[in-house]
Amino acid sequence: MTWKGRLQDASFRGVPFKVEEESAGTGRRVETHEYPNRDKPYTEDLGKITFRPSITAYVVGDDCFDQRDRLIEALNKPGPGTLVHPTYGELKVCVDGEVRVSTSKSEGRIVRFDLKFVEAGELSYPTSG
């Protein structure tokens, strides 16, 4: 299957939107310990980083303001929701801070969103070892 054929239609809490760009970091959480009179540090691996996808999204059409309002309502609901990410699929996420919403007279019929999400995860307490 081609890469384009693998893309999924994006939505958050069932409200669809188009995706212009998406990005997400990956890697490990580490803590580097440096001690007096030692030339070599000790780096401790604390596990994978939390998945935080960012999406440059838009809604388009004569009803773009109605679409905007539905998406804003979904984004403002408290707690985790289901994000259908175009390349990662279905994810349980929370909105991560402020969402930027913009329109431009020169573009017309389009509303853009700068979306940031964070993996919802689950409540669990640290264990030793």
UniProtKB/TrEMBL annotation:
<feature type="compositionally biased region" description="Basic and acidic residues">
    <location>
        <begin position="28"/>
        <end position="41"/>
    </location>
</feature>
<feature type="region of interest" description="Disordered">
    <location>
        <begin position="18"/>
        <end position="41"/>
    </location>
</feature>
<feature type="domain" description="DNA circulation N-terminal">
    <location>
        <begin position="7"/>
        <end position="93"/>
    </location>
</feature>
<protein>
    <submittedName>
        <fullName>DNA circularization protein</fullName>
    </submittedName>
</protein>
<dbReference type="Pfam" id="PF07157">
    <property type="entry name" value="DNA_circ_N"/>
</dbReference>
<dbReference type="InterPro" id="IPR009826">
    <property type="entry name" value="DNA_circ_N"/>
</dbReference>
